[in-house]
Amino acid sequence: MNRMRDAYIVLAAGTLLLTALALHGAQQYDLKNLVLIMSTAVAGTPIPFKAYKALRMKTLSIELLITIAVVGALIIGEYVESAVVTFLFVFGAWLQARTLEKTRSAMQKLIASEPLRATVIRADGNVSIAVENIAIGDRIAIHRGEKVTVDGPIVLGLALIDESAITGVTESVRKSVNNVVYSGTFLESGYVEVIARCTSADTTSSKMIAMLEDAQETGTKTHWFLERFATAYTPSVVALSLLVYVFTGDIHMALTFLVIACPGALVIAGPVSLAAGLGNGARHGILIKDGETVENLAKVDVVLFTKAGILTTDSQGPAEARTDTQIAIDQVRSAGISKLYLLTEDSVETGRAMARAYGLDGVYAELSPERKVEQVTELIAQGHKVAIIGNGVHDAPALAAANVGVALGAANSIVSMGTADVVLLSNRLGQFSYAYLLARSTLRNMKQNTYFAMATVVLLLFGVLLGSVFLASGMLIHELSVLIVILNAVRLTCYRNPHHPDLAMIYASRKKAAQATQDI
């Protein structure tokens, strides 16, 4: 609703500006000024209200600076400046909101994947209820073409399930009795009955949405520094604008300085990049806990692999080697991380043999859970940024001790989301190199935006003091700089790993080759 209202305001103010331009051509100057004042009123009315709300929170906002500048422009009769500045501000805000939606696409897809109703099997027949009313232990019926409404094991039936909403992998999975299904996934064919093992608030998809929301609210260290800087910077701008007027006597220059110095692009430089990077990760089945994790992950120089669930698959019988381990380790190396080690409870001889088999640089063997934590802590003390890839349940202490704890697999996702910094939901080790490269790209994008925003403000302020940048033109450049920052961040939503082939294609081709061999 707010977006539609803003669109109408932009349309009305823009129409009035064009009308004023036509009146100027017709030499109807008095009528032109009246229309410009009307345009200022239409576009500018929401601005002081937002400034007032910020003041109540003891914050000096960009809206306050714009309000002061516009009132000043009206007082000195600069109606063109007041109309253009207010129009550009509301148009820029509307355009930003539209563009930012692209960075939240993964969040919107997750929310859209959440089912609303479930069919519960009762003694007296099936009942359709809202998913929030599902209780632990309820038996849920799910038919072909329906979304899975709960997390839980299948107790009856067989189905082909699309889990891409959770894992980011498009290959459908065949599931039967005792296999676990997840809320938000889609039943392509078949029929199953599932026992709910948690309420709707605790399903994997609900936890994913909550984690992604929290992550977007939690910035990096650089972002928080800029936030504190902007808080002190804004009142400083007001003071400097007064000094400009005192020394030059030029009210127009002082008002222009006030508007141009607004740190709009600088304040959003970090959050918009972070939102885009986190959204890209979620779309590919990679959940990153917060902005600080992105920063840490981008700087990782040591990766520790635990044995459980990583170099071997969990099974009831003997451990089985993962088909993707060697490819994944090669990808991690080519991504730029050269120190790769194995952490294991096994003997030194067994650990060395496994490390050699997978091309790792060494092994830390015969480690109890406590010793794993000590080993991680020791590496961090040596100045390394350490990532450990393990099982979210069994390796929780070590994951918590590392700079970046990475848990593998949706099966343990609910526990992992509480203990790990990164969760690879597809249960594919190859996702780690993608997560690492995505974090580096996100951090690089944040720095690009920050440097660009700072350079733009500095150049514009010099232009104002030299008398070559004026209120309307400066506001246009300011809004364009904000838009450029957003568009640069939006590039992250389209980011793909440029160095490695899609692991899903590799696995699919291996499966086909294995099947062909069996057929022969």
UniProtKB/TrEMBL annotation:
<feature type="domain" description="P-type ATPase A">
    <location>
        <begin position="114"/>
        <end position="213"/>
    </location>
</feature>
<dbReference type="InterPro" id="IPR001757">
    <property type="entry name" value="P_typ_ATPase"/>
</dbReference>
<dbReference type="GO" id="GO:0005524">
    <property type="term" value="F:ATP binding"/>
</dbReference>
<feature type="transmembrane region" description="Helical">
    <location>
        <begin position="59"/>
        <end position="77"/>
    </location>
</feature>
<feature type="transmembrane region" description="Helical">
    <location>
        <begin position="254"/>
        <end position="279"/>
    </location>
</feature>
<dbReference type="InterPro" id="IPR023214">
    <property type="entry name" value="HAD_sf"/>
</dbReference>
<keyword id="KW-1133">Transmembrane helix</keyword>
<dbReference type="GO" id="GO:0016020">
    <property type="term" value="C:membrane"/>
</dbReference>
<dbReference type="InterPro" id="IPR051014">
    <property type="entry name" value="Cation_Transport_ATPase_IB"/>
</dbReference>
<keyword id="KW-0472">Membrane</keyword>
<dbReference type="InterPro" id="IPR008250">
    <property type="entry name" value="ATPase_P-typ_transduc_dom_A_sf"/>
</dbReference>
<feature type="transmembrane region" description="Helical">
    <location>
        <begin position="450"/>
        <end position="470"/>
    </location>
</feature>
<feature type="transmembrane region" description="Helical">
    <location>
        <begin position="230"/>
        <end position="248"/>
    </location>
</feature>
<dbReference type="InterPro" id="IPR059000">
    <property type="entry name" value="ATPase_P-type_domA"/>
</dbReference>
<dbReference type="Pfam" id="PF00702">
    <property type="entry name" value="Hydrolase"/>
</dbReference>
<protein>
    <recommendedName>
        <fullName>P-type Zn(2+) transporter</fullName>
        <ecNumber>7.2.2.12</ecNumber>
    </recommendedName>
</protein>
<dbReference type="GO" id="GO:0016463">
    <property type="term" value="F:P-type zinc transporter activity"/>
</dbReference>
<dbReference type="GO" id="GO:0016887">
    <property type="term" value="F:ATP hydrolysis activity"/>
</dbReference>
<dbReference type="InterPro" id="IPR023298">
    <property type="entry name" value="ATPase_P-typ_TM_dom_sf"/>
</dbReference>
<feature type="transmembrane region" description="Helical">
    <location>
        <begin position="476"/>
        <end position="495"/>
    </location>
</feature>
<dbReference type="InterPro" id="IPR036412">
    <property type="entry name" value="HAD-like_sf"/>
</dbReference>
<dbReference type="Pfam" id="PF00122">
    <property type="entry name" value="E1-E2_ATPase"/>
</dbReference>
<keyword id="KW-0812">Transmembrane</keyword>
<comment type="similarity">
    <text>Belongs to the cation transport ATPase (P-type) (TC 3.A.3) family. Type IB subfamily.</text>
</comment>
